[in-house]
Amino acid sequence: MYAFVAVDNQQLQYLWDWKQHNLSISAGKLFFRANPKLCMSEIRKMWNKTGIQGHFEESDFRNNGDRASCESTILRFKSNSTMSTRIKLTWQRYRPTDFRDLISFIVYYKEA
């Protein structure tokens, strides 16, 4: 039985302002599916704050957050070379704990 269900919310990123509000769930669990911008950390936070009994299983919520930048890591650059029309960046190899979590690398720059 589920006490809270969130399915197919394309823009959902945050669940609750835990500093302003409390929420208790005495019976039932959480159900989240196909919320592409909702990170696992938000679901885990709600699980912990509501007092749900039982172990949190990330695999139950894996199909959320696939279009969000949920975790960021600072890459350590080894070199860069600049030409008139392009720049080449090289960084130390990054190895996430689960390669399914790595969708792509995104580099932002600002022209100076």
Automatic annotation (TrEMBL):
Domain of life: Eukaryota
InterPro entries per record: FN3_sf (IPR036116), Ig-like_fold (IPR013783), Rcpt_L-dom (IPR000494), Rcpt_L-dom_sf (IPR036941)
Pfam short name (any one): Recep_L_domain
SUPFAM superfamilies found in the cross-reference section: Fibronectin type III, L domain-like
Gene3D superfamilies reported for this sequence: Immunoglobulins, Receptor L-domain
Domain called Receptor L-domain: residue spans: 2-50
This protein's name: Insulin-like growth factor 1 receptor
Organism of origin: Notothenia coriiceps (black rockcod)
Biological classification of the source: Eukaryota, Metazoa, Chordata, Craniata, Vertebrata
